[in-house]
Amino acid sequence: MTSSFQTDPAVLVLEDGTRHRGRAYGARGTTLGEVVFATGMTGYQETLTDPSYAGQIVLQTAPHIGNTGMNGEDPESRRIWVAGYIVRDPSRVVSNWRADESLDDALVGDGVVGISGIDTRSVTRHIRSAGSMRGGIFSGESAALADDEQLRIVREAPRMSGLNLSAEVSVASVEVTPAVGERIGNLAVLDLGVKQSTIDNLAARGFDVHVLPQDITIEQLRQIDPVAVFYSNGPGDPAASGDHVALLRAVLDDGLPFFGICFGNQLLGRALGLGTYKLPFGHRGINQPVLDRTTGRVEITAHNHGFAVEAPLEGSFESPNGYGRVEVSHVDLNDNVVEGLRALDIPAFSVQYHPEAAAGPHDANYLFDRFRDMVVEHQVIPQQSKDKN
C-alpha cells in the first residue's frame, strides 16, 4: 500500500495567483481544471467516480478523507473522473472490511494528481468569495517549476464556460441493462456522464435501459423503439451542447415522455427555449435544501452542477420554442436557483439534482416513480384513443 504521508512537495496554484503548498497525494505530475469544492461528509468514492466531475479539480471540505478506502462495489462509473483531488488530512490506514485498496493507490492507478496537507477551509472560502476559477496541482518534477511558469500554465488552460466534455465521458457503443420486475419497455438513456446508480434505479422501475452514446442521431434512437427518453447528468457547459438540444427537440416533437437530471435539466431548459448561465461557485454536495412545489415538501438533496437554467420562478409561462406551458417545479432554498422544470402540455420534466444519490440522501428517489407513472399513463392514453376509433 502506498503511504499517504510521503513528503514529496506539491503546490496548488489558482489563476488569480493564489498559491497553497502541501504534500503530493496520488499520482505525481501536473493537472489542470476548474477548482470546485464538494461539501459531502461521506461518499468520496461516489464523488470521484461521478463523470460530472470531469475537467474539475475537486476539493473535499470534510477534513479527513480516505479512511474507508476504495472498493469494487460502489463506483458510479468505470474510472475516477476528477481532473485532480485536494484533501486536508488523508487517512493513515484503511479500516473498512469492504475495501480493496487505499484511496491513494486508486488515485495513482487512474493517474489522478492530488495534493494534501493544505488549508482546505481557506481555499473554499476564497472560491466562495471570488468564484470558481482555473487551477493547477504541481507535484513531482513540476513542483520545482518557477512560480510564474506554473501560473502561466494555469492561465492557458481552457475555461469551463463554452466547454463540451460529453464525448470524453460517454459510452462508445450501446449498453443494455434488462428491466427488473414487470417490464414497461425500452428506455433510451443519452449518456452524457450517466452514473451506475441511475441505471439501476431506472431498471428497477421496469425499463430495459439502453445507454446510448452522446453522438447518437434521432434516427438511431428511434430504432430501439423507446417508450421514453432520459438525459443523464454530465460535465461541461450546456450552451456548448447544441447537438444534444437538437436531439431533445426531436424527441419532444415525437411526443415521447422525457426525464432529465442535472445536465439533462439544463438541456431541457434550452430545448424549451430558455437560457442557462454559470453559477459563481456552483452546488456540489449532499446537503442542499430544495422545495418540491408539487408536494410542498422540502428535501435534502445531492448536487453537482456549475450551471443553471434561467426561468421565471412564479407561475407558468409559455415555452419560447412552442412546447406549451412550463413551470419551475423545484427551487433551491439557499439561493433560489431553478432546480426543476415541468412541462404542463407535453410529458416532460427534469430536476437539477441527483435523485439516485448512491451515498445519500434519498429524499428525492421518488422522482423515478414519478417518471415511471408518467410513462405508463402516456402508454394508456394513446391506447384509449385507438379504442375509441
Automatic annotation (TrEMBL):
One of its GO terms (biological process) is glutamine metabolic process. It is an enzyme of class 6 (ligase). SUPFAM superfamilies: Carbamoyl phosphate synthetase, small subunit N-terminal domain (SSF52021), Class I glutamine amidotransferase-like (SSF52317). The keyword Nucleus does not apply. L-glutamine binds at residues 52, 234, 236, 263, 266, 304, 306-307. Residues 1-183 are annotated as: CPSase. It comes from the Bacteria. Its EC number is 6.3.5.5. The keyword Ligase applies. Residues 8-138 form the Carbamoyl-phosphate synthase small subunit N-terminal domain. Keywords: Amino-acid biosynthesis, Arginine biosynthesis, ATP-binding, Glutamine amidotransferase, Ligase, Nucleotide-binding, Pyrimidine biosynthesis. One of its GO terms (molecular function) is carbamoyl-phosphate synthase (glutamine-hydrolyzing) activity. The active site is at residues 262, 354, 356. Pathway: Amino-acid biosynthesis; L-arginine biosynthesis; carbamoyl phosphate from bicarbonate: step 1/1; Pyrimidine metabolism; UMP biosynthesis via de novo pathway; (S)-dihydroorotate from bicarbonate: step 1/3. PROSITE patterns: GATASE_TYPE_1 (PS51273). HAMAP family: CPSase_S_chain. Composed of two chains; the small (or glutamine) chain promotes the hydrolysis of glutamine to ammonia, which is used by the large (or ammonia) chain to synthesize carbamoyl phosphate. Tetramer of heterodimers (alpha,beta)4. Belongs to the CarA family. Small subunit of the glutamine-dependent carbamoyl phosphate synthetase (CPSase). CPSase catalyzes the formation of carbamoyl phosphate from the ammonia moiety of glutamine, carbonate, and phosphate donated by ATP, constituting the first step of 2 biosynthetic pathways, one leading to arginine and/or urea and the other to pyrimidine nucleotides. The small subunit (glutamine amidotransferase) binds and cleaves glutamine to supply the large subunit with the substrate ammonia. This is Carbamoyl phosphate synthase small chain. The gene is carA.
